Fold these 2 entries.
Entry 1:
Amino acid sequence: MAAIEMVGKRKNNNLWLGVVGACVLFFLTLPTLIVIPMSFSGASYLEFPPESWSFRWYESYFGSSEWMKATRTSLLVAFLTTIIATPLGFLAAYGLTFTSARVRNASQLLVVVPILVPVILIAIGVFHLYAKLGLNYTITGLVIAHTALAVPFVIITVLAGLKNYDFNQELAARSLGASRPRALLTITLPQVKFSIQTGALLAFITSLDEVVVSMFVSGGENATITRRMFNSLRDQLDPTISAISTCLIFVSISALVTVYIFNRNQKNKEQL
Amino acid sequence: MEIAAKTQLEGINSKALAKGRRKEGRLFFNLALPSLIIIMIVVFIPVFWLSSLSFFDRAGDLSWVNYDRIFQGQLYIKTFIVTLKISFIVLFFCILLGYPLCYWLSQLPDRIAGILIVFVLLPFWTSVLVRTYAWLVILQRNGIINDTLISIGWIDEPLQLAHNLTGTVIGMVHILLPFFILPLFASMRSIDTNFIRAAISLGSTPRGAFWRIFFIMSLPGFFAGTVLVFILALGTYVTPALLGGGKIQMLAQRIDSTIMLYSNWGAASALGVVLLILAFATIWVFNRAFGIDKLFMR
């Protein structure tokens, strides 16, 4: 009898826990998604639920040469950051797995610093450094800064991927006559592909969504979309932002879905 | 098999092999250099340079004048207090919301938990600006919450939810919660539930088993999440700037305005140094207790 009571109580507890957990998940997800219906509103101010529907805010976004220019800058910078940070981060993670534990731990510490240092200090410091180098308001400067902010995510992701990888496979390839680079490219790389792809997507998103450094270092012809959005949000709530936000949410969801598809393919392969 | 290989190595020419391994380690460290150098150039050098400014007065002589000023100025003291207050409130809510969620997820079958964690990852991967904008829309005077509450007759006047402390805290909790959940969830998942069964079979109450076994074993992830949330909260710039409506000035904004409005680099730099010390003291304390590698659990 007591046992049955206890089981009943546990079920109750689990129900209560599930309600709380579901509420927290709603809190995390719903507010962001509310932007999507609002972006199709026909009204000239923000209302929810919208009483009429239209594409006017998308027209106002895609029709504005300033917003389009900022979008192009952001996409270009994010793309360049990704193709630089991904190989650099992979090489670093690969190299660090062969170093002594002490060197590895010290390096990992250096690598997490950019994530933990308040970004405003990085932004102001880089702004001043770039003023001396003439890199402010340039694509080059933005890409260098974003690469430093994105590369830790690539390193952490790839290090996690390499943890589960059996390096004896590489040794086997080399003992069969493959050179070191060839063993790396043909044996190791395909097997940790998933973590590299995830790292690359994280690098892209990090650069695309970065606000504070872009606020200081980008501007003029090369202002990023986040810089323009921040300034616009500080002044008034322009509904055009809801259309831009919807586009950015779409990019995030696509990136996440891509990671899941990679992950599933990886798992299927492991099962075979 | 590993042990056998090891004895064999030690048997034949262990010294030469160890030397070879060390040499290889040094060689492979070079692969990490490009990444480390770019981090040095963008993060370490600028931040060190910025910090060094705080030790000089306007004439360029070494002095403590900047620190004297920030610790005597009412405005700066107020900023410190507000920053710490908000960071602790945000941390409190992250624990309050994050711990039950992680516990619930860790009790679910892997497949379902794997699907539900997407709802944590989605906001994590979404722009901070977009999320702050969403909260502005929801919390403003004629936003969704006020409209709903008025239409069902709970309130007559719209509540002041945005452009103040409430809005700032809600926005920050929303942005920092995934940083608490992800390490804690990873930590809880690695707990072997047989320990709890064993405790109960040995006469512990379920509640006792939870606190004395499960909670203690989840602490590494709990503390990793705590450090991340607290440090990121201390340095937050975007959310209070937009949801605080100019009334909430946290350290990061104070540093910004001290330079951009008053071009007082010395004072801004001193504020930055205090912010860095607060952040690294937090890491240091937790590192002493739990090891920095816990931060790598993602």
Entry 2:
Amino acid sequence: MGRTRAKDRMKAEVNAGSMADIAFLLLIFFLVTTTIDVDKGVLVKLPPWSNEPPPEMKLNSRNVYSVLVNANNDLLVRGEPKLLRNLREDTKEFIMNPKKRDDMAEIPTKAIISLKNDRGTSYETYLEVYNELKAAYNELRETEAQKRFGKSFEFLDKVRQKEIRADIPLVISEAEPTNFGEE
Amino acid sequence: MGKFTKKRGKAKPEVSTASLPDIIFMLLFFFMVVTVLRDASVKVENNLPFATELTKLEKKSLVNHLFIGKPLKEYQSTYGTSPRLQLGDKFAELSEIPLFLEKHRASVGENSIPGINSSLKVDGKVTMGIVTDVKTELRKSGQLKVNYSAKPKAE
């Protein structure tokens, strides 16, 4: 009799009822500490550093789209003041040159965007301008992808994406900023 | 009619709660995986600007963060009010950037070094001067992949 009872006791399990409570506690801890902020941003590739001055390049001025942002956060595009909201469309027109004007890029691969700012330019404005320029290129690539393959650019395979990238290359050259407006 | 009499004894079926811990554990694991424990407290003002052309940064371990902004109120007495650079969890000088990058490079595998991104978390009000200096320093150290951190703009 006594023996069988002892065996029964051996089989007794640990009460797992409180497991849920413990798990809940941990869950709440992680819920509170979690910050689901995905790191997003505008990706850029900086040019490599060299101590020598960059080689003099002879560029046809029709292929250069110069954008200046001064310390007052005003835009000067190809010598004329411009509003930020017009920048994207204007850039697109410059790159593609649909009317074949002789003061805009010959072909998209030759187009160069030259961005220059003052040290006093606010970062916010700078990023907005950069964003608009990048958006112009992204939109052009998107329309090109639709035209050639009837598909959105991001859904194309690597080879085709590369093909379009090669035809509409993003070239933003950034000059050393001028020393205006540094606080 | 006997057929419709209630079967009293058999009533009160309860929902089994035995699987509840499993469900909770599943949720728990989900949050444990998703959680990014903040490793550095930001000591500078950091209102990121808005942008639309955003790229998501994958692989958290291959990202190093550089914060630039005005020191927060409690640090202004020591560090002043002009924008400062913060590396890791402390204020730093521009000259400390190469070492900071080198430390991060050493912590990731040799093969993943080309995949390292620098995330520049710059306050919108900062002027370009310090940002340019940081960019120059990054270029000198060969860290060319840079991500200007920004918030998505609602259109």
